Amino acid sequence: MVADDLARQKAAALRADWTTDDQYYDNADSWVGSFWADQTPFRQMFNRLDPHVIVELACGRGRHSWQMKDWSNRKILIDVVPENIEFCRRRFTGVANVECLANNGVDLAGVETASATALFCYDAMVHFDHVIVLQYLLETARILKPGGQALLHHSNYPGNPGGDYKTNPHWRAFMPGGLFVDYCRKAGLDVIEQRLIGWGGEPALDCVSLIGKPAA
Ligand SMILES: C[S@@+](CC[C@H](N)C(=O)[O-])C[C@H]1O[C@@H](n2cnc3c(N)ncnc32)[C@H](O)[C@@H]1O
């Protein structure tokens, strides 16, 4: 099997895992403040992005981009589950400058090269197999304008290599220290800042990384 086929196989499994989790989606809006309140690491790092043309990867039912509903920026919401994208289209009806795209779980094919000022992904990449993370980093490098930045919330869990992510704490994927940075460098992206964060009482289970495409 070639690496691309492996990534697509992993993406198909993720699509199945996240198609029917109504319990998650029904509750998710009630704790969106843990990402958007002023003093959270997420908000502090998000404030460094230029949101003029922003892609939200793995948007779910749109609770994060909804925080920007009154902003005049262009928002591109992407998710591997078509039902989530249909939900977002309904949710954002009447909100200007919003595009909602269902993707294949490995690339950003609907987004033009060098067109976005920023990309972010919260509470989703933590579950992605690292072969998918590499694909998305390569795609992030493609779609960002020179000088553009991405804010990615990903796993920092070093256990269970080759295993099922759903058997790990909080469904975190295997992502040993250093691997994310290695992939960023291979994708031609600079790692600007990383903050380790706890999740569900597990210290340093996750990492929030601000990365950038070098200015031309
Ligand atoms: C835990 S939910 C989080 C949704 C949203 N980020 C939020 O915080 O509300 C995980 C999301 O990742 C999406 N997802 C899973 N694998 C994906 C992939 N390979 N590419 C794009 N989206 C994916 C799922 O469909 C789901 O919407």
TrEMBL record:
Gene3D superfamilies: Vaccinia Virus protein VP39 (3.40.50.150)
Superkingdom, taxonomy of origin: Bacteria
Pfam families to which the protein is assigned, alphabetical: Methyltransf_25 (PF13649)
Domain Methyltransferase: 54-148
Keywords annotated in UniProt: Methyltransferase, Transferase
Cross-referenced SUPFAM superfamilies: S-adenosyl-L-methionine-dependent methyltransferases (SSF53335)
GO molecular function, one term: methyltransferase activity
Coiled-coil ranges from the UniProt annotation: none
Protein name as catalogued: Methyltransferase domain-containing protein
Classification via InterPro entries: Methyltransf_25, SAM-dependent_MTases_sf
GO BP terms: methylation
Organism, as annotated: Rhodoblastus acidophilus (Rhodopseudomonas acidophila)
